[in-house]
Amino acid sequence: MRIAIHPDAAAVGEHAARILASTVERTPDAVLGFATGSSPMATYEALARHRRDGLAFDRVRGFALDEYVGLPAEHPESYRSVIDREVVQRLGLTPGNIRVPDGAAQDLEAACRAYEDAIRASGGVDVQLLGIGANGHIGFNEPTSSFASRTRVKTLSPRTREDNSRFFGGDVARVPMHCLTQGIGTILDARALVLVATGTAKAAAVAQMIEGPLGAFCPATALQLHANATVIIDEDAASELQHSAYYRHTEANRPAWQLP
Fold first, then answer.
1. Which residues are catalytic?
2. Regulation of activity: what does the record state (predicted)?
C-alpha cells in the first residue's frame, strides 16, 4: 500500500480527489466506486472544486458500496439519498449512470446477484473510494467477513450501529439492523483502491490495517493484498502507527511517475 499522511481532513480529501479527478480526465466515462459516511465527504467537496474548474463528470458511471435494508429510498439517511445529495448533485453526474444496492427489494439475494452482474457488465470499477470503520470494516463487511465475499446481505455489528446512530439523531434503535454491501472480493476486483480516514477514532483500525497481520477480524487488512491501494490519512488517524516516519519518507520521495 502507498501511505500518505496529511495535516488535516481537507488535505486528505484533496489528495483523494486528485486521484479520482485524474482518472476522469484520462477516461471521461470511468467507473468510480462511491463510499458514504463522514470520511469521504471532504473528497467530494474537493471534487466539486475540480468541477468548478471545468472537469466534466456527466459521463462518469458509478456504484455505491452499500445500502441499508428497509429504509425507503427517499429517507434522508438511505445511501441512495446520500449519494444523490452529496455526489450526483454536487458533481453533476448523470443520475441514471449511478447504481446503489436495492435495500428495498422483495428478493434481497436476487438484488445482490443483479448488483454483481451490473458491476461486471460495466467493465469493472476503475477506482474505488473507501472509508474504514472503527472496527476495521470496509463497506459494511464487518469483522470475520470472508475476503472472497461478494455483494450480499449482512447484519450490522453493535459497534457500527452505535457509530452510525449520529446520523439518526443519536438513537441507535433507528439504525437498521441489516444492509446490502459489496463483498471484500468485489472491492478487491477494482483496479485501484483509495481509502481515506481521519480522526483519532480511526487510529487503531488504521494501524491494524496497515501494520497488523492479515486477517478477517480486521477486514480492511485485505487492502494488503491489492496491487494498487492508496491509504490517505490525517495526523490523528496516523497516531497509532509504529512506522509513520518511514511512510512520510516514502511519500516524500515517491517518483514523479507515481503521482498523484
1. 66, 135, 137, 142
2. Allosterically activated by N-acetylglucosamine 6-phosphate (GlcNAc6P).
